[in-house]
């Protein structure tokens, strides 16, 4: 700040000097000498010319012309005293001008130069250690304090742009202040610096989901799918993925994610009623517009005598290439033939849905509730094309121990 004011003073002194110094310079005495010499030479030349003209009879009144020439020469001689007085008077007039320049310059700066903001910023930087401590202990709650803290963070990040923690704190400050743009920009920077941090990934994806840009929403979906792929039981990521899919109108994925969340949360968890209502709405939309795979199970005649007294039927759907199921459904053992349907709510992972498949292969397995009976009565279909409306027939006809 001292350097700033010194700069202002130097500039004002230079401005004042530009006004005063030229008037303080004394006139060059050689100027008057040169003028007198020129006037004298001119006078002598004219006298010579007049003499020659008179000798040639060109002029008749030489004396009159000489008198006129002398009069003109006298008029060109300055009066020293009057010039000195005029010079002294002009210098005095500059003093009010210099004072006016100083007053106007300082007044304009105080009015438009943001001195108050600069002083406020300096005060914030002095308080930053205390503001950081209060933020870490959860004592930073008022909007004014949060805004001051955000100002200090932005200043510190100018000198430490790779400080991930400060970027995340700035993003949180933006969220608390309702400044979504600041929060998104801060978490975008944090994500660039720490792309594998799940906490940063989830919040950044949530902020992208709020964007009106479809590319941002797709990027959020990709980030969340990567998290779920690595950690399928991450409730925060699953919830965010469900909201992202719900906003995109992908009700299949939203249903799968929310159903997974419900299996991970306790029955009395906060917000569970909201999840259930959102899930019900998504299912209603899916019923109207979604894709389903219908399955008709039949039992080979020779297998009827092999059925356990109590058991279950597990239906697994694969893509026909990988043995890993994409969707599964389990039902208690009942009467055959049996008809059922599967949709994205039966997907094993929210990031890999039944509706994303172009072909399917179905495998049905009957198992006994008796642990001593380790038989598997099985049947599977051929690979079938799938567009979302197909019905596939499966015959259960062989036993695997």
From TrEMBL:
Pfam families (alphabetical): Ig_CycH, TPR_CcmH_CycH
GO BP, sorted A to Z: cytochrome complex assembly
Residue stretches making up the Cytochrome c-type biogenesis protein H TPR domain: 117-269
Keywords: Cytochrome c-type biogenesis, Membrane, Repeat, TPR repeat, Transmembrane, Transmembrane helix
Transmembrane annotation, as ranges: 92-110
Residue ranges constituting the Cytochrome c-type biogenesis protein H Ig-like domain according to the UniProt record: 293-396
Gene Ontology CC: cell envelope; plasma membrane
Major localisation: other
Each TPR repeat, start to end: 164-197, 235-268
Transmembrane among keywords: yes
Compartment(s) of residence: Cell envelope
PANTHER family hit by this protein: CYTOCHROME C-TYPE BIOGENESIS PROTEIN CCMH, FORMATE-DEPENDENT NITRITE REDUCTASE COMPLEX SUBUNIT NRFF
Classification via NCBIfam families: cytochro_ccmI
Protein name: Cytochrome c-type biogenesis protein CcmI
The organism of origin for this protein: Pragia fontium DSM 5563 = ATCC 49100
